[in-house]
Amino acid sequence: MLPQPIRSSAKALPQALVLIVEDEHEIATILEAYLTRSGLRTAHAPDGLRALALHQSLKPDLVLLDIQLPELDGWQVLNEIRHKSHTPTIMLTALDQDVDKLMGLRLGADDYIVKPFNPAEVVARVQAVLRRTRTQASDTRQIFRVGDFQLDIESHEACVFIANQPTTLDLTLTEFKLLECLMRTPNRAFSRVELLEACLPEGDSLERTVDSHISKLRKKIEQLGIVGVPASVRGIGYRFGNRS
User: Fold this and answer.
1) For position 181, what pLDDT does the model report?
2) What is the DSSP letter of 110?
3) 46 and 102 share one domain
4) At which of 84, 109, 140 does a domain end?
5) 170-214: per-residue pLDDT in tens?
6) Which domain holds residue 189?
7) Three-state DSSP class for residue 152
């Protein structure tokens, strides 16, 4: 039984949220209509301060960002976004000058569209950036599945599928590390020293600490009706344990 990495498809864009930062109401309305028609969700910010507030609260999948804005201009907004996240951002501007394009690229913009533009082209560029960035994200994201157990390494989420329905395991960081270590090579027996070094490198150096964490992990799994995970290996330590 080997862990099966799961990778999501980059072709589908299920209800991605696009934050439109545009102070001209007519332009924002047209963009909202075209993006919505293409199956994307939208939110609108009429100025730079509102844009940062919505970016923080909504966590959009992409930002369409005008440069000439009230309160904070597009460069300031992009700079703040890049300090906090890697949210894909497409700049919108009426200024077709190389210096502006270079400024956007230097600050981390993903694309650059000059006004006036065809709204259908904007949608196509949005979809292209989303596909590219989601492909990059899926390449680095690791989700392991062993039997009914699944771990999302990036989000540190563990769940067990019972009757094909996921049930979340509420694990401590150490418990998650132990489960991850055992699931990566589920048929291998790990000694307590190996688990101690892999999962508690800066913690208690006593081997019995591993027993304590394994016991707590096992109890949480047993509450879901699953017995023998992790499994004890006499004279050695522990392995993940197989489920029939």
Assistant:
1) 92
2) S
3) yes
4) 140
5) 998 889 999 999 998 898 999 998 898 888 755 556 778 899 999
6) 143-239
7) strand
Q: Are residues 153 and 164 in the same domain?
A: yes
pLDDT mean across residues, the chain: 84
- Number of domains the chain contains: 2
- 3-state SS assignment for residue 231: strand
CATH number at residue 208: 1.10.10.10
What would the two tokens of residue 129 be? 């950036």
Query: Are residue 168 and residue 184 in the same domain, yes or no?
Result: yes
Q: What CATH number has the domain bearing residue 54?
A: 3.40.50.2300
Strand boundaries in the chain, DSSP class E: 4-5, 17-21, 41-45, 62-66, 89-93, 111-114, 143-146, 149-152, 157-162, 165-169, 190-191, 231-233, 237-239
User: How far apart are the C-alpha atoms of 46 and 192, rounded to whole Å?
Assistant: 58
Q: Could you tell me how many helices (H) and strands (E) the chain has, helices first? A: 8, 13
132 within 8 A of 124, measured Cβ to Cβ: no
Strand-by-strand arrangement of the 231-233 sheet: 190-191, 237-239, 231-233
| pLDDT score, position 100 | 61
Sign for the CA dihedral angle at 52, 135, 90, 105 comes to positive
